[in-house]
Amino acid sequence: MTRLPRPLQPLWPLAKRIHRLGALASGSLFRRLSWLFGPRGLPRRGTERTMLTAAAEPSSVTVHTSDSGEHLRRTIPDGSPAQHPAYTSIASFVVPPRFTADLADGIVVGDYGATVTAGGTFDFETSPYFSIDDWREHPLFLRRRLPSIETFDGTLLALATRGGSYSYYHFLFDVLPRYGVFAETMDGVEPDALYLPTTTTYQQQLLELTGLDRHAVVETGKNRAVQASRLLVPSAPNPLEVAPRWMVDWVRKQLPPGEATDKPRRIYVTRGGAKHTRRLESEAEAWPRLKDRGFARLDPGTMSVRDQIDHFAAAEIIVGLHGGALTNLVFAQPGVKVLEIFAPTYVKHCFWAITDSIEGAEYRYLVADRPPTAPDDWLTNIQDDIDLDADTLVRAVDDLLGE
Q1: Greatest CA span in the chain, whole angstroms?
Q2: Enclosing H/E stretch for 234
Q3: Domain boundary among 239, 255, 274
Q4: Whole-structure pTM value
Q5: What is the mean predicted confidence (pLDDT) over 273-294?
Q6: Is 191 in contact with 232 (CB distance < 8 Å)?
Q7: CA separation (Å) from 74 to 87, 89, 154, 355, 380?
Q8: Quick one: which of 175, 146, 150 has its CA closest to 234?
Q9: pLDDT for residue 53 is more than 80
Q10: Contact present, 99 and 78 (Cβ < 8 Å)
Q11: pLDDT of 144-181, one tens digit each?
C-alpha cells in the first residue's frame, strides 16, 4: 500500500483484490509453462506448511524446531467505541512453535523473501504476504518466471519478508526477530551472510545497534533471486501482527535505552499535515491544549533510531495517531499509559499487542466518530485522515491522565 502514489492510496482495498486475482490467474498459466524457462521457471507446486515441504523433499529440506508455542489471551482494552472488533477478533491467538527451515540449494526470491526449494516447491509458511490465505495468491506468481538466479556458495540466512524493505514496523518486528528464531533453533550455527534490506538509514542504524552489522549482507532486491548451497529460513516471528511476548522481549533486550533522563515524560506523536496520511485534521486546534498539559510533540520520522528509542523509553504518557512511529512503543517503560487514535475506516490491533506485553502498561484507544457505512468497514481505507474534534481528544487525554 505504501508503495502506491499518495493520491491513489485510498484505492488500496480495490488494488489488493486485483493483485490477488492477478496472482491467481497469472500463476495458473505460468506454472504450467514453467518448463519453458528451465531453472528460472516458477515453482510448480506449493505447500501451506514447511513440515509438508520437508516431507515432500526429505533429502534437501530439514526443519529445526523448538518447543516454543504460545497461546495469547489478552484482555480487551478500554476505548471508544467499546469492544471494537479490531481487538475482540484477536484477543485469543495461538502462536505456532518457532522453527528454521534448512534447505540444500534453496532459492530466496525478491524483497518479500519467497522460499523455493531445489525441487521446485514454494514454501508458503516461510514466505507470508499481506492479506492472503492461499499460496497461489502470492505476488511471486505475478511473474512469468524467476529473476536471473545468482549463486551463493555458503550458508545464507534469509531474514527478508513482506514489508521489511520499506516499513520501520515490519523491519523491526518481522525481519530482525527472525534472527532470534534462528539463534534459538540453530544454536552454534554461524551464517556466512544475511539476506535482508539495508538501504535505508533506519535499517542501517538498527543493524548497528543490534550488532547484526557484523555479518556480511546479500542485499535484497525486487528482481533478485539467490540460490545458496545452504539456505536457512526462520519462521515468521509476528503472525497476523500479534506481537508474541517472546518477540517483544527479544526486541527490548536487543535494543535497550540509553540516556533518557533529559527526555519529556509526556509525548504526542504527530503524523504531520499532508493529506491522506492519517493526519489529525484538528491538530492545529488540539495541540496548544496538549502542550498546556505538558506534552512534547514528536515526529519520529525525523529522528535517529537511538533518539526514538530513548524518547519512548522515557515517556510515561504517550498519545499518538495510528502509524509506524508507534512501533517505538516496544521501548516504553513498565507502567506506561498509551492512547492511540484512529480513523473509523482503519483500526488495527498491532500496537495494543505490543503494549500488552509490557508490564503494567495501560492502553486505550479512541476511534473518530462517523456514521457506519457497513458493519465490517474498519479495515477499508488505510490512509483516511482522522476527523476528530479537539474537545473529544482532549477529554480522552484528561481521562487517561486522571485529571
Answers
A1: 70
A2: strand 225-234
A3: 239
A4: 0.93
A5: 92
A6: yes
A7: 9, 11, 43, 11, 25
A8: 175
A9: yes
A10: no
A11: 999 999 999 999 999 999 999 999 999 999 999 999 99
Q: Would strands 225-234 and 149-158 be described as parallel, antiparallel, or unpaired?
A: parallel
Question: Mean pLDDT over all residues of the chain?
Answer: 93
Examine the fold and report which residue of 221, 239, 257 is the final residue of a domain before the chain moves on.
Answer: 239
Give the pLDDT score at 395: 97
Residues 171 and 273 in one domain: no
Q: Which residues contact 9 (CB under 8 A, 6 or more apart)?
A: 1, 2, 276, 382, 383
What domain range includes position 123?
6-72+97-239
The HSE-up count of residue 11 (CA atoms within 13 Å, CB side) is: 9
> How far, in Å, CA of 362 to CA of 380, rounded?
27
Cβ contacts of 260 within 8 Å, gap of 6 or more: 310, 311, 313, 314
pLDDT at position 1 is 45
Which 8-state DSSP code applies to residue 364? E
Q: Can you read off the three cell numbers belonging to residue 341?
A: 487514535
Q: Which of 109-118, 156-165, 187-196, 252-261 has the lowest mean pLDDT?
A: 252-261
Do 316 and 192 belong to one domain? no
Residue 384 has pLDDT above 90, yes or no: no
Classified as helix, coil or strand, 269 is strand
> Residue 9 pLDDT > 90, yes or no?
no
pLDDT in tens, 105-129: 999 999 999 999 999 999 999 999 9
Residues β-bridged to residue 107: 116, 227
* Angle (CA) 234 132 235, round 5°: 10
The answer to whether residue 258 sits within a structural domain is no
* 224 and 283 both lie in a single domain: no
Q: How many CA atoms lie within 13 A of 225 on its CB side?
A: 21
Tell me, yes or no, whether 290 lies in a domain. yes
User: 133 and 33 share a domain?
Assistant: yes
CB atoms within 10 A of CB 9: 18
What value does the mean pLDDT take over residues 249-261? 93
* The three grid cell numbers given for residue 261, joined into one nine-digit string: 533522563
Q: Examine residue 33 and state whether it is found in any structural domain, yes or no.
A: yes
Kindly state whether residues 234 and 293 are assigned to the same domain.
Answer: no
d(CA 167, CA 202): 10
> HEC string of 302-314?
HCCHHHHHHHHHH
Q: How many domains does the chain have?
A: 2
The type of residue at 195 is Y
Same domain, 48 and 193: yes
